[in-house]
Fold this sequence. Notes:
6-stranded mixed beta sheet
Amino acid sequence: MAKARLRDLGISTGVLPTGRWNAITDVAGVRVGVATLIRDAPHVVRTGVTAIWPRGAELWQEYCFAGTHSFNGNGEMTGLPWIAEQGLLGAPICITNTWSVGIVRDGISAAALKAGATQNFHLPVAAETYDGWLSESETFPVTTELAIAAIEGAISGPVAEGNVGGGTGMICHEFKGGTGTASRVVDGWTVGALVQSNYGSRELFRVDGVPVGRMIGADVVGSHRGVPREGGSIIVVLATDAPLLPIQCQRLARRATTGLAWVGGIGGNGSGDIFIAFSTGNTVRQGDAMNGVRMIAPEAMTNLFQAAAEATEEAILNAMCAAETMVGREGRVVHALPHDLLVKAMGEYRRGG
């Protein structure tokens, strides 16, 4: 059964229309795969891997332009120096937990070799957020095989959200967090966002401007004392079919900051808030001596910026709506955002109650 999303509760954010699935996969060719690992022995494990393909298997040879932004850098995303240097993405992006980012990075490289990619080396993008409050991730449960499973299992269409893939053990605004996605359509282009949300304090949490976190405080829905109030992290992956150059992708990636702020993220000192944006609107084929590329006009970027911000905002909220209460290591509990209390808080605030 599909999990509830924000709009299933009668709540919407932003003003731009969504794509068909309201997901990053609304950008043609983009596919998402998840591999989830939940077990209680010999160690308590609540983790996994999420894989995002900008296009099909041709990606190993037909690269996309990409750009990144670090809002706060207490986190890891591999491959960024090479993206900064050449602005190209030639492999799927994977997200996992902090302890496993190197293993998953190696898994991407192994998947490339398995697929027959001809490059002499790979500098893939693997990112992380910390799930150690719920999962004994220091036992290194994630393997290269699990990463390959997420990569090879990627599909188009609706995207699994909540306690799945890399988002399995994550916490957001002291509620259960995880994986979420959304999209917006503007000027004939689509912008999609996928987040792995694991950040934020309860008191800063807002939904469409409503201070829900203060209305559903820890006295209403418990928040374990050990959950960091300003720490944690979020990874945002933005995709668009608009033809962008690398510097334009970088500019788009920065606008995830706005969507994060709308929900209540401030980029605390202990937070790793790292964003990557890619465009499928151009193709740079490996080995070709010349490639023809297009770009939209600079003034046309403003509407894409709004789309990126709105999609990021709703992706975070979808992650929280889809997530379910989870019991983890040492019996620790992180509660899901209660749908009934969310709807009630939104109604009371808007009525001035």
